[in-house]
Amino acid sequence: MSGIYIHIPFCKQACHYCDFHFSTSMKKKEEMVLALAKEIKLRKKECFDESIKTIYFGGGTPSVLTSREINFLIDAVYENYKVIGDPEITLEANPDDLSEDRILELSKSKINRLSIGIQSFYEEDLKMMNRAHNSVEATKCLQLATKYFDNISIDLIYGIPGMSNEKWKDNIDKALSFGIPHISSYALTVEPKTALNKLIQTGKIAAPNDEVAQEHFAILVEILESKGFIHYELSNFAKENYFSKNNSAYWLGKKYIGIGPSAHSYNGVSRSWNVANNPIYLKSIQEDKLPNETEILSVTDRYNEYIMTGLRTVWGVSLDRIKTEFGVPYFNYLNKQSHKFLEDDLLFIENDILKPTKKGKFLTDGIASDLFYLNLE
Questions:
Q1: Which contiguous run of DSSP H or E holds residue 295?
Q2: In 3-state terms, what secondary structure has residue 170?
Q3: How far is it, in rounded angstroms, from Cα 70 to Cα 76?
Q4: What is the DSSP-derived secondary structure letter of residue 327?
Q5: Cα dihedral sign for 312, 55, 152, 212?
Q6: Cα–Cα distances in Å, from 93 out to 6, 26, 43, 177, 253?
Q7: Closest Cα to residue 362, out of 153, 156, 212, 169?
Q8: What is the model's pTM?
Q9: For residue 323, what pLDDT is reported?
Q10: How many angstroms separate the CA atoms of 78 and 70, rounded?
Q11: Which tens digit of pLDDT belongs to each residue from 219-262?
């Protein structure tokens, strides 16, 4: 078993672009923490004799939990699972939750990695996205966090309507000025049923422009690689030895357990996911039932997932693995489908590994979908 992901389904307010599962009411927070600890215990049989290498608090906004609540959940993992000597334990946090006292508290806990949702250092961007923090808090929290933590990741969003290339470069430069060793960066995407989608449909905000996003992505790659960052996954850049161990395990197809409402789990054969509904989740756990659904993954499902994750990462897609693990028909199909992308200089093969070229990186998800097999079985 690689890791445990714990979904904290609470946020102070809803960001306009977010479609993750969360509630802005904190009324059931204590009850939820007890339920999460109980689910951790209920699922220990799934781990058998395997060791936990990473614990990841995601959300939602995990930093709305008190340090006592965070430590309680970490202790629940240690009590019920074998944990390696020095696991990576990450807390996603928002700048407005990271006062110096809070950071100091966290630094004394088992948390050894912070993932901070900066998104932008510009006030107008943060307001447009309805972030809970402001630009002063974005800067201040990094000044403080870097005093107490070495392993820090920040999130930045590009392709924001009205964001010039210069402004985007300023965001990157500001991030680099703190000596942050890991940056996750995503294009602003418009998901259905979000406030952002409604604002665009009513003409209050301009829609993101794909060409602008592609330019921002190219700028990001160029600047970060010139500063010694390794572009190890489509949206992730890290200095040597600072790759996210938790996320790398997902991309490399390792097993993990997802705890909490809407959390997903994977055991190498099947995928399961918990109900994305806080009251139903709480009721089920209180009755000692796991509120999840399971899907056994077919060979085609696993092939498609490997294509998607492989192409997005520095490890690429092993043609030898395609042949041995999935079979010759899949290998032949991949060769046929990838031919046009190889000719157009969007993919290349090196040491029997298929990877996107620099030109093809931004288009990776689209290329991957063209390599998927839909009905082989």
A1: strand 292-296
A2: helix
A3: 10
A4: -
A5: positive
A6: 14, 16, 26, 20, 26
A7: 212
A8: 0.94
A9: 97
A10: 13
A11: 999 999 999 999 999 999 999 999 999 999 999 999 999 999 99
